[in-house]
Amino acid sequence: METTGKLVSAVMDFMDGKLAVTFEVDARCAEECRRMAGKIADSLGLSKARAKNMLICRYGQPELLPDGTPLVYKTNAPPEYMWELEVPHSIPAKFSEENGRQVVFYRLYRGSHTYDSREMSLLIEGTVSEAEGLGIETLTPDELARMAAAGAA
What we know:
This protein has helices spanning 27-44, 48-59, 79-82, 117-133, 141-152, and strands at residues 5-12, 19-25, 72-75, 89-98, 101-109. The model has no long low-confidence stretch (mean pLDDT 81). The protein is an alpha+beta fold.
């Protein structure tokens, strides 16, 4: 599915010359993604927060540092705890031990409210694929396309 959006702002950083562009996507598309995440959670017996984290970490966009490298967060919080948080969206990347205690390095992912049209489309397509794989009814391609087109009007 493709989604539509509109350009909200474009800001040039004069120090490094990078352009930051912000898009606003059709809220109904984002809501459909949240609805499907809830159904996936119910189908798998997971909390909605865990299902959303799972989907964002599979199909979402990594949080990047200004130099473009992925943001990694080190904590003593176990994965079972981190999966249940609404934010940050994170996935364990490495386990280590420091001073006799386990520490976990998590790769962080951006919240979907920051996505442009292409990024949101990838998240929705992945979510739809997961839902269909579990036998969960989703909107038809025509319904999804109409919903996306309505957001452009």
